[in-house]
Amino acid sequence: MSKQDSNRNVSVIIPTYNRCKIFYKVLKALEAQTIDKYRFEVVVVDDGSTDDTAQMVRYFAINSQLNIRYFFQENKKQGAARNLGIEHAEMPILIFIGDDTIPDIRFIESHLNFHQKLENPSKSSVIGYTTWHSEIKITPFMQYIGEFGHQFGYSLIDGHGPLRFNFYYTSNLLVPASLLQTLDHFFDEDFDVYGWEDIEFGYRLENIGAKLFLNRDAVAYHYHPVSVVSFCRRQENVGRASNIFIKKHPELDWFLGDRAILERNAKPYLKAVFYKNIVNLLDNLSIPLSHDIYRFILDTHYAKAATLSSF
Predict the structure, then answer these.
(1) Which ranges of 38-150 does DSSP label H, i.e. alpha helix?
(2) Cα 251 to Cα 60: distance, rounded to the nearest angstrom
(3) Where are the domains of the chain?
(4) CATH fold of 3-222, please?
(5) Is the pLDDT confidence value at 76 over 70?
């Protein structure tokens, strides 16, 4: 193996929690990748699953050509799981995906080719393009959150970048391992609810001069049906987590929303709850509504949770 080839080897890091059936599809997709199996390893971090995840991964490790390494920890959330994966990764390039994110057949190859052609690869990270899997019902609301910023904001991106820190999507992210060694810590484990730990991670990378780019050809498919109701619960978790974020980075109140704006946005919460239930019914019927309505519902749920505790 040439030195150039060895420098392009990859650790695919996947935190997982109780998604055995979908995670099986992820591993099968990795098994089908177009690059040689010796070029990458799969580092699985099981964050305390109580389903058949451990048995399923062991089956793959024995019967597949994939180089799989499995680590178990008590449930500590996704940031701690990714950190454990980073600590055990043996390759110079890290790719983070989710346990419900199924990579296209050329996923790793596309990520590597794009990253190698960047002006300064050692200081550059890359997000791929994540869209919904065709096997699930894709509603108008899911199309909205997948493109316009509440989950992913791909339609807000013009060109390849560099992009700001809020685009560090760890469901589909390449980062050089050497770049992480310049941080004083990896993912911040103080985030004990869903939301912001990946953006906070990206913010610290941006502050040390790292650049982030988009490669739309590194495609992965999100196998996770979402309703308006379930996503509003997510928004409330993100709102609660924003209080952790702002304590660490008060200079970013412009990004998270200052207190007065959040309190104003939280006032019509009951109206937003009513809208949420109506919109959820319409979405199940595949009836699209304006982005303003979706944004009102989601921003209000976020603001309500964010204002329940002080910064």
Answers:
(1) 53-63, 78-88, 107-116, 140-145
(2) 46
(3) 3-222, 228-306
(4) Spore Coat Polysaccharide Biosynthesis Protein SpsA; Chain A (3.90.550)
(5) yes
Residue type, 77: K
Q: Among all chains, which residue has been given the structure tokens 């919109």?
A: 279
Distant-in-sequence, close-in-space partners of 13: CB < 8 Å, separation ≥ 6: 43, 45, 82, 85, 86, 89, 94, 95, 96, 97
Written as one letter, the residue type at 229 is: V
Q: Output the pTM of the full model.
A: 0.94
The residue whose two tokens read 């997709």 is: 29
Number of DSSP helices (H) and strands (E) in the chain, helices first: 13, 8
Q: Under 8 Å CB-to-CB from 158, ≥6 apart: which residues?
A: none
Residue at token pair 């990764």:
89
**How close are the terminal C-alpha atoms of the chain, in Å?**
53
Q: What angle do CA 106, 147, 156 make, to 5 degrees?
A: 100
What does the pLDDT look like over 17-70, one tens digit per residue?
Answer: 999 999 999 999 999 999 999 999 999 999 999 999 999 999 999 999 999 999
In the block, residue with structure tokens 């109701």? 229
185 is written with which tokens? 């810590």
CB 102, CB 25: distance < 8 Å: yes
Q: Among candidates 33, 93, 107, 43, which has minimal Cα distance to 71? A: 43
